[in-house]
Amino acid sequence: MEEFEPGKFSYEMTPIETAISSQFLVVGAIGLIFEVSSLFSNAISVLGLPVIPILTVTFFHDKMDATKAIAMALAIWGFVSYVYQCYLDNKSSKSEYGTGSEVSKSPLLE
Predict the structure, then answer these.
(1) CB atoms < 10 A from the CB of 75, how many?
(2) Do residues 43 and 82 touch, judged by C-beta distance below 8 A?
(3) Residue 53 to residue 60: CA distance in whole angstroms
(4) Residue 109 φ then ψ, to 5°
């Protein structure tokens, strides 16, 4: 603890802040699962993956190495693929079922 340059207070606050932010993450993910879907909750969690290395490079002056860059690229690619697939599904369902104003054409009600 004496080797921690920012001091004792920062050393003790780091795990406390980590625990609090983890609780917010868990509650938010559970809320997304109940309100939308587990797939959307996972997509939002994956979207947060590239944010953390960017913040560490910005605020903690960490080095951006190839592993971080590849992980960020894959996370962004995965999220964009999810959004594009949702777009394609929405587009095909609109063309298949019309404008969506007619409830009787819904496959769930047939």
Answers:
(1) 19
(2) yes
(3) 10
(4) -100, -5
